[in-house]
Write a structure and sequence with these properties.
- The structure holds two protein chains of two kinds.
- In chain A, helix 2 packs antiparallel against helix 3 (51-69).
- Chain A has helices at 8-18, 23-37, 51-69, 72-77, 85-98, 102-116, 123-142, 150-157, and one strand at residues 160-164.
- By secondary structure, chain A is mainly alpha-helical.
- In chain B, helix 10 runs antiparallel to helix 11.
- Chain B has 18 helices and four strands.
- The radius of gyration of chain B is 26 Å and the shape is globular.
- Classes of the chains: A mainly alpha, B mainly alpha.
- Chain A binds chain B through residues 1, 3-5, 39-43, 45, 48-49, 106, 110, 127-128, 130-132, 134-135, 138-139, 141-143, 145-146, 150, 153-154, 157-165, and chain B through 43-49, 176, 195-196, 262, 265-266, 269-270, 427, 435-445, 451, 454-455, 458-462, 465, 467, 471-473, 476, 480, 484, 527.
- Strand 1 (160-164) of chain A pairs antiparallel with strand 3 of chain B, so a sheet runs across the interface.
Chain lengths: 165, 527
């Protein structure tokens, strides 16, 4: 029986990753994969035991493609989509700045990570942006933390109660 | 002999202004303060809701040279005792076998905590802006490196000098299958180094160190001594002498944010979440290690817990922080209920899942059963009877074909794992406060055992994505999982973990497990 570290899912995705030849291909492949299989908002659980490993392998490949294609200036300043990294970051920061709702802020932060987590965005820009987004999110989340009773909180989060004993 | 005018002039000058022959530590510290390092505008790499004040003081005022001198003396004493007298008297072989097994868990897990504390205090160094406060955190970074080495060393010592090295020597390789590992990583790793930097300090210094190191590092030395272990007090008390500095750092963290308006909005919430996070694991696990992992008992865990956690920490220590607006956590009362029964509930499950561990467990003897019943009235009817049944069915004997996990299945008592704490619980067979609550989000089910954890998950679900062993190994046969998860001794067939510590008893092998045909199933799928 295939074990958890060596199974057909991982083999299938390893082959797909090996076929990536350009940064543009890698960028599209990684962002699509993250949108479908990564984050708490995912609805596809078919890769439940393998998504983290596969994401890591795609990131590894995109980083190598980036190393081969990008010059030094691009490497420090551009996302793999070709856009200026600081501009992309500023857009996310502006959205967060205007946000006053914790659930919207959560979306902004998680979507920023899905769209920009390195190697898509250079780490020098990503980490500081992530820090600022995280700070604002935590401020919104922790204000009046106990204001809603659990029953209300479940509704707002949109969960289905399977059982309460 | 005549002296030159120049020499005389120098001699006269020295008589008036003598060159220093020694410098007091406090004098050096004052001198260091005159450096106007400007960290005020330094931006940290880490997110935090709080702003730490730039003029925060540090109580220990310890400079690096003094620190190094002090720690080297402590190391000399500790390693000298271990390598000389304790080796000559064969101390590691005088430890009670049950306690030898407990130390596999305690020292390996504490090593993980100390290792993560290096990163946590490094993060705090980065986040603080006051030079003195940074100096305090720096001292702690060095301490945590020392403690990581000490915990590693005590395992090495037990493995080299003592009895049954398996588990002391390479516990970490079983981390994917052992049900205690993930909860431990939740408190010792995630709690210390992820999220708000100040919240991490609250987890590490204000709760982990000020609250739980007393039972963990001080009480453990009493239990160790009572069970013939002279190595653990030698090392752990040396660790504990550094913990005072860490508690002081936690205090100063709170002082540094006391005037920040963020503190009035967030601090008590962060403290409550940190306390619940830490206690949810430590309360049952420490109680289980002390009481079920020893032969000679010191005192009931509930008394230790009440003294150190409830009275000393929740009352006195937090009381001292009251002037800064800090309140005792609202969850303290619920935690107090857990302190009575939760470790008994956990041992029942831990024994049932013994093949997935990296240490040997032992059922209570008749003498121990009397002690439990005397200190926890009602223990026998709930747990004692079950252990008698398991023993009668041959749970210790590999030829019996009986794993206690089967008892839970036969009696329809499913074991769940709390998504937030990763601690296993059996809601239909427990005396602790665990209640089953299962929520579905985007098509995935999550189980919780208390309202505090449920709220933490509802507030930030992306923080608690860790899969549990039932989700990971659904449909897989137990012996395959053990082999894949490196749960075997060096012969490649005998399990590291065993359901007894009898030196003459046969050890279970992979074949013994295989013939039982136990298959993992996820209880959430049945709901």
């Amino acid at each position: 029986m295939p074990n958890i570290h060596d199974n057909p899912n991982r083999t299938e995705w390893t082959n797909k990753i090996a076929a990536l030849k350009t940064v543009a291909e890698g960028h599209a492949f990684l962002t699509n994969f993250r949108a479908q299989h990564v984050s708490v908002f995912r609805t596809d659980f078919s890769l439940e035991l393998d998504w983290l490993w596969i994401e890591n392998k795609i990131e590894e490949k995109v980083a190598l493609l980036k190393h081969a294609e990008f010059n030094d200036a691009q490497f420090l300043n551009n996302c793999t989509c070709g856009r200026n990294a600081q501009q992309v970051a500023n857009e996310a920061l502006a959205k967060m700045e205007a946000c006053t709702n914790m659930y919207e802020a959560e979306r902004i932060h998680i979507e920023f990570r899905l769209a920009c987590k390195p190697p898509i965005m250079p780490v020098n820009v990503f980490l500081d942006t992530d820090r600022q987004l995280g700070t604002k999110l935590m401020e919104l989340r922790n204000t009046d933390y106990y204001a809603l009773p659990l029953e209300e909180l479940r509704k707002v989060r949109g969960v289905r109660v399977v059982t309460l004993q | 002999m005549a002296i030159s005018t120049a020499t005389k002039a120098a001699t006269d000058a020295l008589a008036v202004n003598r060159a220093p022959v020694s410098v007091g530590a406090q004098e050096v510290h004052r001198w260091m303060q005159s450096f106007t390092w400007d960290f005020d505008k330094n931006r940290t790499k880490y997110s935090t809701k709080y702003k730490m004040a730039n003029d925060t003081k540090e109580q220990f005022k310890l400079i690096a040279k003094e620190y190094a001198r002090m720690e080297s003396v402590k190391d000399e004493r500790q390693f000298g005792s271990l390598q000389d007298v304790l080796t000559r008297v064969d101390a590691a072989n005088r430890v009670h076998p049950k306690w030898n097994e407990s130390m596999k868990v305690i020292s390996n897990f504490l090593e993980v905590g100390e290792y993560n504390a290096i990163a946590a205090t490094g993060m705090l160094w980065d986040s603080a802006t006051a030079p003195e406060q940074k100096n305090g955190y720096l001292g702690q970074v060095l301490d945590e490196i020392r403690h990581t080495n000490q915990c590693g060393y005590i395992n090495y010592y037990f493995a080299k000098q003592g009895q049954d090295a398996a588990g002391h020597n390479d516990a970490r390789r079983t981390r994917a299958i052992g049900p205690l590992w993930k909860g431990m990583k939740r408190v010792f790793s995630d709690g210390f180094i992820s999220g708000d930097a100040v919240e991490c300090s609250i987890n590490l210094q204000l709760v982990g160190e000020a609250c739980f190191t007393n039972p963990l590092i001080v009480a453990v030395t009493e239990w160790a001594s009572a069970n013939g272990d002279e190595m653990t007090p030698t090392v752990f008390l040396s660790i504990e002498t550094d913990e005072l500095r860490h508690m002081a750092n936690g205090y100063q963290t709170v002082v540094s944010i006391a005037n920040d308006e963020a503190a009035s909005k967030y601090l008590n919430t962060d403290l409550n979440n940190a306390f619940w996070t830490q206690q949810k694991y430590f309360t049952p696990v420490l109680g289980m290690m002390f009481e079920y992992g020893s032969h000679f008992k010191v005192e009931p865990w509930v008394k230790t817990w009440n003294r150190w956690v409830y009275e000393d920490w929740g009352g006195i220590w937090i009381g001292r922080l009251g002037k800064y607006g800090v309140e005792s956590p609202a969850s303290l009362r619920d935690a107090k209920k857990d302190a009575y029964w939760a470790h008994h509930d956990l041992f029942l499950i831990a024994y049932a899942l013994w093949p997935t561990g990296f240490f040997r467990l032992t059922l209570p003897t008749a003498e121990e059963a009397e002690w439990y019943e005397a200190n926890y009235p009602g223990w026998y009817d709930m747990y004692g009877k079950v252990y008698e049944e398991w023993r009668a069915r041959g749970c210790e004997d590999p030829d019996s074909g009986f794993l206690p996990l089967q008892w839970f299945i036969e009696n329809n008592h499913p074991i769940y794992i709390d998504r937030v704490s990763q601690v296993p619980f059996c809601p239909s067979y427990c005396k602790g406060a665990s209640t089953l609550r299962v929520l579905e989000f985007n098509g995935k089910k999550h189980s919780f055992s208390d309202p505090w954890g449920e709220r933490m998950w509802l507030s930030e679900p992306e923080r608690y994505e860790c899969q549990n062993i039932f989700e990971q190994y659904e449909g897989r046969e137990l012996s395959e999982v053990i082999a894949e998860g490196h749960g075997l001794r060096s012969d490649g067939k005998t399990l590291i973990s065993q359901p007894h510590t009898n030196k003459n008893g046969r050890l279970w092998t992979l074949d013994d497990i295989k013939k039982i045909g136990c298959v993992f199933s996820d209880p959430l799928k049945a709901l």
